[in-house]
Amino acid sequence: MSSKKAHRHAPDGLILAIACVAQFMVVLDVSVVNVALPHMGHDLHLSQAQAQWIINAYVLTFAGFLLLGGRAADLFGRRKVYLLGIGVFTLASVAAGFAATGPQMIAARAIQGLGGAILSPATLTIIVTTFHGPRLPKAIGAWSAVAGAGGAVGGLAGGLLTGWASWRWVFFVNVPFGIAAAVAAGLYLQEKRNRDATVQLDVTGAVLVTGGLTALIYGVVNTTTSSWTSPSTVAWLIVAAVVLTSFLFWEARVASHPLVPFRIFRSRPLSVANVVMLLAGGAFFAMWYFLTYYFQNILGYGAVRAGFAFLPMALAIIAGAQLSSRLLVKTGVRPLLLVGSAFATLGFLWLSRINPESSYWRDVLAPAFLCSFAMGLLFAPLATAATAKVDRADAGLASGILNTARQVGGSLSLAVLGTIAFDRTQSYLHAAAAPASARIAKLAYVAGYARAFEISAAITLVAFVVSLGLPAKVGHHSSHAPAANPAGTAAGAGH
């Protein structure tokens, strides 16, 4: 009885904190591993290409099960799903921290991503079912700000933890926060769920899309050791095609309550927004990965210094997001998408001029800042476009699909650009007349990074062209935008 009373009279501030702490953890773990990645790869005996899976394992399961997690809280109750998500996420963090081999780490990260996919939507459900009237926008604003901060400080936090303690602490740091959040939720969070909900969970759809994307990315990354026509590469690509085709068939013809109802893509603004997010978000995602290796392996930065090197870029994301949310009322969506993708294209072209003798302050900071600012500019207009022409009942689904597109784009972009960079590096080394010296090796690696940035510029240029397909009148009129924007901002800030 006393437990129920505590649930009823828990302060709203405490409920908001329970939601925000968990969302901070989920978003932080998308970006916190970046600076620590070279150290993890060295200790776990993973090549640079293999180390990508420490990121991909998390992002793929997070993206594949995110929409499923969004429906779970409504069906089974926000408290129950929150506790399940925080439990899975925290235990997986412990497993990742103690991982002794690459496969153990990748498996732990995949489970961690699943926990995040369960937990993240539950945090927003907690806020929406707790706060009403004028208090709701303020609560969502606080949730969005904390989530954005989690993504923004990830690089710095990863650098500090790795440099001052060990890379293992980028995972162990989740444990005290996870335990505190779980205890608080168990004591004070009242259970609420939609008792009229009849929608079933499309677990089959989530498994198919996650498995298909994993096979596709594995096939692409496999080309770093085998040719595109090798039996192993072809086999993985065939598996990916079969599984993804099965996913499309399942969603369109079989599933009674599909994970992704294709009818929602009749909205042209939503379709354009998702393609732009897939492209631009993916290019930006890969930028942090390549700069991480450039700072530490080429410029010789330690983990702490590399973390601080990312701080101006995090601030640029926040500045761009704040500016675009204010300009959106005056300009509408399309001008901001065009300016943001154009800035990103210029920034990536500028970054492609790096060399082993480049200076962070002279040659890297300005273009990386421009790319980051451009990504910030895209957040609000993309969220608005995604929800502008859909029914109110589908606004949450549309926002979730946009978030998923960003995560999927990040994984695909990292796999493709990582493979292109590796091929460029190998070609440079093979062309060297003598055995590779330390200088030749640095030149080869930087040639790979520069090629990846050139392709990123081409990708964001395609995003610019796709943005032209957006109707000119899509603007700030959508009543769904405030609710959708936080999800997009939170997800995007991490990279």
Distance between the termini: 45 Å
Mean of the pLDDT scores?
85
Describe the biggest sheet?
none
Instruction: Tell me the CATH superfamily of the largest domain.
Output: MFS general substrate transporter like domains
CATH architecture of the largest domain: Up-down Bundle
Helix content: over 70%
Radius of gyration: 22 Å
Instruction: Supply the helix-strand structural class.
Output: mainly alpha
CATH topology of the largest domain: Growth Hormone, Chain: A
How many strands in all? 0
Total helices: the number is: 20
In quaternary terms, these chains amount to single chain
Structural commentary:
- With 495 residues, the chain is mostly helical.
- It folds into three domains: 193 residues, Growth Hormone, Chain: A; 55 residues; 234 residues, Growth Hormone, Chain: A (Up-down Bundle), CATH 1.20.1250.
- It has 20 helices and no strands.
- Helix 8 packs antiparallel against helix 14, helix 15 packs parallel to helix 17 and helix 17 runs antiparallel to helix 18.
In summary, what is this structure?
By secondary structure, the chain is an all-alpha fold. The chain has helices at about 1-10, 10-30, 35-45, 50-75, 80-95, 100-130, 135-150, 155-165, 170, 175-190, 205-220, 230-255, 270-300, 305-310, 310-330, 335-350, 360-390, 395-430, 440-465, 480-495. The chain folds into 3 domains: about 1-195, MFS general substrate transporter like domains (Growth Hormone, Chain: A, Up-down Bundle); about 200-255; about 260-495, Growth Hormone, Chain: A (Up-down Bundle).
